[in-house]
Amino acid sequence: MATRVLIADDSEFMRNLLREILEGEFEIVGEAENGVEAVNMYEEHGPDLVMMDIVMPIRDGIEATTEILEENPGATVIMCTSVGQEEKMKAAIKAGAEGYITKPFQKPNVLDAIGSAV
Amino acid sequence: MRVDVRALGACNRLAERGAEQAAGALSDLTGTDLAVEVTGASVASGEDLAEAFAGRESIGVSVGLRGGLEGEAVLAFDAANVDALLSLLPGGASMERSAVTEVGNIALGGFLDGWANYLGKAIDMSPPRYFEADGAAVLPDGALAGDGVFLFESRLDATTTDLDFSIYMLPDSGPFRDLVVGKTAPAATAGAEAAAGGGDAAGGSTAVPYESLSTFASLAKRGSANAADNISMMTGLDTTVDVSRLRFVPLADVPAEVGVEPHAGTVFELQGEPSGYLAILFEEESAAAIAESMLPSEPDEPLGGMAENALCELGNVMTSGFIDGWANVLGTSITHSPPEFVHDIGSATISPLVAKLSRRQDYGFVIDAAIQTEGLQARCDVYALPDERELARALDRLSET
Questions:
Q1: What's residue B183's pLDDT?
Q2: 3-state secondary structure of B270
């Protein structure tokens, strides 16, 4: 059974790019445009993995990750972000992210990160 | 506020590294190589910036910054290049705004990483905002307000396609401003001072009041206008000053900015306070046309002995026009050497001056002015490279008067 993935990114362009990379090998259960949608869609679909952007409107990816993990301690989240700052990454890991990939990413980076996390 | 020239150098290095990271991210995303052409900080009034950006139509992406840095950073490019950019992005053509916004997001994220890691503090970026802007409206909020601002600008050029980007950031508040004024004393600055012989003790303070710097930028502008008037007087051609800006740049970048096209003109050494160097350069064809307009008959060679004499004399008069205003306002005496005629590829004409000044400093205030002549397709670029410590001293005195 394919790993079920939720994509959370405010950029339609990035969501499309990630979908193109993942489709075929993974099942995309939904696409969220902000942190609130990500939390709601997680509750709705219960995916195996969330690919979570950090910088998003309404609620950012770190806050959304914290909220998802509070309710679902077994959730797996990978941060995918344009920001590679050490402090931001520490905050992401502290929030419970399994790993992160920095945009722009290529298919092998994404698959490696997922392979390590799931 | 007092701007520390050395701290400004450290900030410039961070901006340069950030720009390199942004170029790397953009290269990965678009599949085309991009290189950082130049990174510098310009001192300009809102009026100057409005003039410099007049007629440009840009597409930009801005992000708000909080935390380690506060303010706004903008990635912008020429609106005419949007199709070229979209064609490089997978699926880009079908989602113009989203694709462009993400390009800005990724590039600015890369740009800010270096700053955040250096500061040891996270920088929070707001979600990117796409915009289309005419003229200087592309610049971060606050750029056009007040008498003058520091505007950090990095230009990224694609090496194989006609695509270039600019990143703008204003040190208008909070931690960024503290960095520029040297309050947070970046380690890179301390290292640079030690290498240069030790800050205050050896060479005098390099902190100058921002207001004086702004005054100096105005003086530079006036100097450019004087130099343009002198061209008019000697050639009978009407002239206009297209751009005149005071910029703080790595000296090593200056030759590349002049470029590889053949240039002719004159270079001078300045003595007094500030000492330094001044170059008056024309593209080769412009130099020949200007010289011909000053001579009673067409010279045997376009840039032979007669033309050389004419350009030397023109350089003499322009240089005087340029520096007289400085000396008067700064209350110092500045003289200049006899003109040295130069005729070579652009970078080679100015490299010797940069090499001499680089013995004392890595960064410099470059006053660049572009003077256009009406009727003749001739353009003249003036580069003034003052000694940073002496300029700081003179500007500090200016603030006390």
A1: 63
A2: strand
What angle (nearest 5°) sits at the alpha carbon of residue B272, between those of residues B6 and B372?
80
pLDDT digits (tens, 9 = 90+) for A11-32: 888 898 899 999 999 999 999 9
Cβ distance A85 to B123 less than 8 Å, yes or no, reads yes
pTM of the model as a whole: 0.73
Mean pLDDT, range B31-48, rounded to an integer:
79
The pLDDT, as a whole number, for residue B21 is: 85
Cα B332 to the center of its chain, rounded Å: 25
Residue A59 has phi, psi (to 5 degrees) of -145, 130
The pLDDT, as a whole number, for residue B48 is 76
Within the 69-108 window of chain B, which residues sit less than 8 Å (CB to CB) from chain A?
89-92, 95, 98-99, 101-102, 105-106, 108
**Helices B388-400/B210-235 angle, 10° precision:** 110
Beta bridge partners of B92: none
Q: What number is the average pLDDT over the span B333-356?
A: 93
**pLDDT for B213-261, tens place per residue?**
777 778 888 888 888 888 888 888 888 887 667 888 888 888 988 888 9
Mean pLDDT of the B45-58 span: 82
* H-assigned helices in A8-106: 12-22, 35-45, 61-71, 86-94
For residue B116, which residues of chain A lie inside 8 Å, CB to CB? 83, 85-88
Q: What is the SS3 assignment for B346?
A: helix
Helices (H), B236-299: 254-258, 284-294
Which amino acid type is present at position B57? E
Size of interface A-B (CB pairs under 8 A): 78
What does the alpha-carbon distance between residue B104 and residue B184 come to, in Å, rounded to a whole number? 29
Angle formed by the axes of helices B210-235 and B284-294, nearest 10°: 60
Q: Please name which of B341, B308, B386, B221 lies closest in space to residue B229, comparing C-alpha atoms.
A: B221
**B353, amino acid identity:** L
Place of tokens 């980007």: B165
Distance of CA A31 to the CA centre of its chain: 10
Decide if B125 and A87 are in contact by the 8 Å CB cutoff: no
Residue A112 φ then ψ, to 5°: -60, -45
Q: Are strands A4-8 and A49-52 parallel, antiparallel or unpaired?
A: parallel
Whether chain A has a CB inside 8 Å of the CB on B22: the answer is no
Alpha-carbon gap, residue B121 to B361, rounded angstroms: 29
Residue B319 and residue B221: Cα distance in Å, rounded?
A: 13
Give the pLDDT score at B185: 47
Band of the pLDDT at B376, cuts 50, 70, 90?
confident
Name all domains of chain A by residue range, CATH numbers in brackets.
3-117 (3.40.50.2300)
What's the complex ipTM?
Answer: 0.74
* Measured distance CA(B68)–CA(B119) in Å, rounded: 7
- Contact residues, chain B, for A102 at CB < 8 Å: 109
Contact B387, B277 (CB under 8 A): no
* pLDDT (0 to 100) of residue B191: 37
